[in-house]
Design brief:
13% of the residues are buried. By secondary structure, this protein is mainly α. The chain has a domain at 58-109. Helix 3 (58-72) runs antiparallel to helix 4 (76-89), helix 3 packs parallel to helix 5 (94-109) and helix 4 (76-89) packs antiparallel against helix 5 (94-109). It contains five helices and two strands. Helix content is 59%, strand content 5%. Strand 1 and strand 2 form a beta hairpin.
Length: 110
């Protein structure tokens, strides 16, 4: 009985450790039906859309690097001012918004 339980758990663990079925071809990525191991799989475009990267402006990146350097040196107020400069240049920058939020939280704690 014990061996059966261990064998069952081992099989379950191996099954969970396998990578999910990712599209192997462009036809699978576009939503056309694909054959995976003899099983017919229908995928949608939404299932395989890669994460989009926001195109950061070079001056925003420069300011974010500077703000991060200030943050690592414990100069949170100065870093927040630089993050606000970056947001003034590009109000939609997700990295600048994230940095500002993190710095404001740090300043609330300090």
């Amino acid at each position: 009985m014990y061996r059966l339980l261990v064998l069952t758990l081992l099989i379950l663990c191996i099954g969970c450790a396998r990578e999910p079925n990712l599209p192997q071809s462009a036809s699978e990525a576009t939503g056309e039906s694909a054959s995976t191991g003899g099983v017919k799989v229908e995928s949608t475009v939404l299932d395989v859309v890669p994460e989009m990267k926001y195109p950061e402006k070079p001056e925003v990146v420069r300011l974010l690097v500077h703000a991060t350097h200030l943050e690592s040196n414990g100069k949170f107020v100065d870093a927040l001012a630089v993050a606000n400069e970056a947001l003034a240049i590009d109000p939609n920058s997700p990295k600048a918004s994230e940095l500002k939020t993190r710095l404001e939280e740090l300043l609330r704690r300090v």
